[in-house]
Structure formats: structure tokens, C-alpha cells
Amino acid sequence: MQVPLAAGPLDWSLVGGAVPLALKILGVVSLIGLVFSRNRRWWTRLLPLALVLAALLTILVKIAVNDWWKPFPDDLPTEILFWIGILFAGLCMALFKMPLLRWRGRAGALVAAFLVAVFAANQCNIFYDNYPTFRTMLGPQDTVSLKDAAGGKDSSVLEVPEGKTISEVWKPPAGLPAKGDVAKATIPGTKSGFKAQDAYVYVPPAYKAAQRPLLPVLVLMAGQPGAPENWITSGQLPDMLDAFAAQHQGLAPVVVVADQLGSPFKDPLCMNSRLGNIQTYLAEDVPAWITKNLQTSTDRKQWAISGLSNGGTCSLQMAVNAPERYGAFIDISGEFQPTNGSVQSTVKQAFGGDAAAYHKVNPADVMKRQKFPDTAGVFVAGLDDQPYLGQARQIFQVAKGAGMKVELVELPGNHSWQVWRPGLEQQLPWLARQTGLIR
């Protein structure tokens, strides 16, 4: 979504429109300026050395990230490596050019290198669509305390007759807020012992009514590396849900963005294993906390779970391993099965070599043994997102064979917020119908 410049600098789009175009022009002009020189030594020795060093640094980053550190479940895409190479080229050319320049020229070279770096960094941002605006780079804004968001649990409840949806009996009172509230919260691992990153809670305008409907619940998760706040900033979740609520008289699900990782770069694989009791956390601790702190429906038919990438894989894991809690799921860009690279290494790391323990909870195996006629789900994947698109098609067929009421949605884009954001937004009406919010 592109925001007009009149909206103010913090809301200017970083992925489309005037700002990326300006950065592109400045970056390309700066790059050309760094390449150009009348000095023969520059062309014969210094420029080749600068470009070779930039290439070596890019290769080092590739090896360090993909083979040594491995902070991401997937290798760095070629396009991202290209822009990293451009960034290093700008910095190296400025560095090697310094001996040939006077102080003003040196200052200009540093400015040019900075502009090239900003341009390259924003091209990476455009690829992932991670920061749509300057404001999203600042972290979650306009949050309130959990007490202010949740209110008391003693509000009178709007009764919904059997066979009716909430929207069919709901009448918004005068003075209902136009927007919902977002609060930061700590959800303890009371039974699981899991120490999660802070969660975020969204309550829609209807939750603020004196006679409160028992709204459905969506537990939402980010990817890895990541944290719950990613859905608030990069995912623009509050705006997404406020827009839905505005179209439905203030009604929207209560959303709890929970953590399944423990820290941004960990991956305990969303199961009970040597890596942590994540299944217990999401199946028992999180629901117990929601029931204690929020006044919502407790019916599993009105509880759903969703997530992107690692969180998408986790949402399916919970749907098949805790069906008594979650009646619906939206798996966005998830994997066919949870692994830390391969099934063999996962079995060794998480279960000490006990393959049976892994296959007992692996969704693909569970769905081959058990039927789920009372579970509904949506698989979402990007058309340019391999291998995730192929895996989504594969696991969709397995879920369908297990009797689930499932759909497969393929959207333009790659493994990025180009898919993840609309992947949830476009499924909100399905979710609302599935959980009895609207007809």
C-alpha cells in the first residue's frame, strides 16, 4: 500500500512511489560518480582492487550466513546477494578513492558511498517488503496497557442464539471507538516452562462495548528469525483489523500475536522435545492466559491459529496436535514438515535419535493416521516462492485426504510480506465466517 507524500514523512512508502524512486536515482548517480575518475591509476589498479574486494566480501557474507551462522531457514536469495555486493562496491570504491582526492572530494565520496548503501539496503527492503514505511522502522506505536485494552471481565455478554452469527444480533452502541487497541503482554509458560518473547494483543472496537459479544480468537505467529512485533509493524496488523472492523460495525476477532521461538534466531520447531515444550505452551499456556485476561469465546470452533513461514508450519502442527483447542488454521508460507534442515538432523537434535517420537507429532504423519472432519484451514503460498509453493500444494493434498475442509490460495510474490500480509488480510472474511463472527 503506497501512502501519498502528504500523509507525512513517517508514513511515506519505502517500497513504492516517490521515496524508492528518489533513492534509486541518488544511488545510481552516486555509484556512477564513484566509478568515474580521470586518474589512470584508478582505472588500472584501484578500481579493480575495490571491485575484487567487494566481491570477496559478498562471498564471505554468503558463506558466513548460509553455511556458518545459519540464522535463516533458507539461503540468502541471489537478488539479496546482488544488492549486498552493490553496497560493498560503493564502500570499497570510496575507500580506495580516498588517496586520490582532496578533503572536499573525500567528503563527497563518503556521501556517495552512504547513498549507495541506503539505496542497496532499501532494495533489499523492497524484496522482503519488511518496512513498508518509515514509521514501521520505529517499532510498535500507539500501544496501550493490557489493562486498558482488556478492560474488566465482568461486562454483560451479548447472547447469540444457536444458528445465528454474532453480526446478526450485534448492534453497535453509540460512541463505539473507530479503532481497536493494541497492548504488549507477557504470556508465561506456566505449564511448559517456555520463556517466550513478549506478545501483542489486539482487541477490536466491539470489545469496548458495555454489552460485549464473546468474540472469536486468533492466535498469530511470526516467522524465524522474528518476533511477535513483526506482525504489528511489518504486517500492519492493527490497520488491517481496524479496516475489517470498519466494514463490520466494529466486529473483528481478538488477536493474540504469540511467540513460538523464544528469541528471534532460535527455532525450537513448535513441538515438545529437547528444544522446549512449545506445543504445551501454545495448546495450554497461551489459551489459559487468554481465558484469564480477556473476555472471549472459549469454543474451539471459534478459535483459530495462524502464522507465516515458521509460524505457518507451527499453525498446522497445532491444528493437528491440539485440535481440541483450535478449530481452524491459516498456514501462510509454511513448510511441508517441521525440520531444522532435514528430518534426520531434526530427529537427532530434538529427539535424541528417536524417529518414532518425531513421526508421532509430524503433521503429515498424523494426518495419514487420523481424520479431522471438524477442522478447517487455508494454505497460502507465493507463486514465486519455491520450495514453499510446492510444499504447500503437497501438504494441502495430505490435509484434504485427512478430511479437513481446506483451501489452497496462491498469491503473487515470494517468501516475503508481499505474500504474508495479504495472505492474512484476504482470509479475514473466511476466518470470520468460519468462527461465527459473520454469515
Automatic annotation (TrEMBL):
Q: Which SUPFAM superfamilies match?
A: alpha/beta-Hydrolases
Q: What top-level branch of life does the organism fall under? A: Bacteria
Pfam families, from UniProt? Esterase
- Decide whether keyword Transferase is in the record: no
What Gene Ontology molecular-function terms does this entry list? hydrolase activity
Q: Which key words are in the record?
A: Hydrolase, Membrane, Transmembrane, Transmembrane helix
Q: Which residues cross the membrane?
A: 12-34, 46-65, 80-96, 108-128
Q: Which PANTHER family match?
A: DIACYLGLYCEROL ACYLTRANSFERASE_MYCOLYLTRANSFERASE AG85A, ENTEROCHELIN ESTERASE-RELATED
This one is known as Alpha/beta hydrolase
Source organism of this protein record: Streptomyces monticola
